[in-house]
């Protein structure tokens, strides 16, 4: 199917208004991207953040009459205040197939592999996590996930209880189970992540040992290992909750942190934890620590 897209350069304050207009004018999807490559970090539950300079992209069927849309846009007060736009063709591809074709099996540490569910397993005797990320984050391709997978490969032991805080696709939770953990609890604010984690757990035949919760339903427990691959802001803001899951002597593993943010994250936990050496990959770091 052929598509066209209407790209509108706007501001953080006007982004949601522009999105609503595009939807009202027939856009089949709307996407927000950063106009100036400014980092934005994971919001707290219920919080929505945009970039100061935001590009809002409306996706339209190529046969959709666009001149009426442009006419309406040019009549808005935002356009009169300097809002700019560009209408362009979008290359017609099977985007899902292209993504699938470029997602390959990956090895983490000595024994752990992540294998797309649609590809052959390269080492059948290894610890293989079969993954279909679907709508949730976490394929192993991002450095933050890779750093956590490497730690799990080296440290998970039999009979341990693990909490995956911000479980996304369930990749870390399932890896912990297949490496020998007895029980894993996954927590995420996104119901789609819970669905994706459950589907991936079923695919890996570990669903009987994985418990999944939204924050409002999260249980009280003390775990041997807590892994939190989110971002620095929430790691600091939610430090009391995350630290509370770690039993005395237990391990805490955190990623989604830039080197410049390490001190702030460590400061939020150091009164309860002794930290290991920092691990870094592709400009991201992993912090690991042991609870007093």
From TrEMBL:
<dbReference type="GO" id="GO:0008168">
    <property type="term" value="F:methyltransferase activity"/>
</dbReference>
<feature type="binding site">
    <location>
        <position position="188"/>
    </location>
    <ligand>
        <name>S-adenosyl-L-methionine</name>
    </ligand>
</feature>
<keyword id="KW-0949">S-adenosyl-L-methionine</keyword>
<dbReference type="InterPro" id="IPR029063">
    <property type="entry name" value="SAM-dependent_MTases_sf"/>
</dbReference>
<feature type="binding site">
    <location>
        <position position="145"/>
    </location>
    <ligand>
        <name>S-adenosyl-L-methionine</name>
    </ligand>
</feature>
<dbReference type="Pfam" id="PF06325">
    <property type="entry name" value="PrmA"/>
</dbReference>
<dbReference type="GO" id="GO:0032259">
    <property type="term" value="P:methylation"/>
</dbReference>
<keyword id="KW-0963">Cytoplasm</keyword>
<dbReference type="InterPro" id="IPR004498">
    <property type="entry name" value="Ribosomal_PrmA_MeTrfase"/>
</dbReference>
<keyword id="KW-0687">Ribonucleoprotein</keyword>
<keyword id="KW-0808">Transferase</keyword>
<dbReference type="InterPro" id="IPR050078">
    <property type="entry name" value="Ribosomal_L11_MeTrfase_PrmA"/>
</dbReference>
<keyword id="KW-0689">Ribosomal protein</keyword>
<feature type="binding site">
    <location>
        <position position="166"/>
    </location>
    <ligand>
        <name>S-adenosyl-L-methionine</name>
    </ligand>
</feature>
<comment type="similarity">
    <text>Belongs to the methyltransferase superfamily. PrmA family.</text>
</comment>
<comment type="function">
    <text>Methylates ribosomal protein L11.</text>
</comment>
<protein>
    <recommendedName>
        <fullName>Ribosomal protein L11 methyltransferase</fullName>
        <ecNumber>2.1.1.-</ecNumber>
    </recommendedName>
</protein>
<dbReference type="GO" id="GO:0005840">
    <property type="term" value="C:ribosome"/>
</dbReference>
<feature type="binding site">
    <location>
        <position position="229"/>
    </location>
    <ligand>
        <name>S-adenosyl-L-methionine</name>
    </ligand>
</feature>
<keyword id="KW-0489">Methyltransferase</keyword>
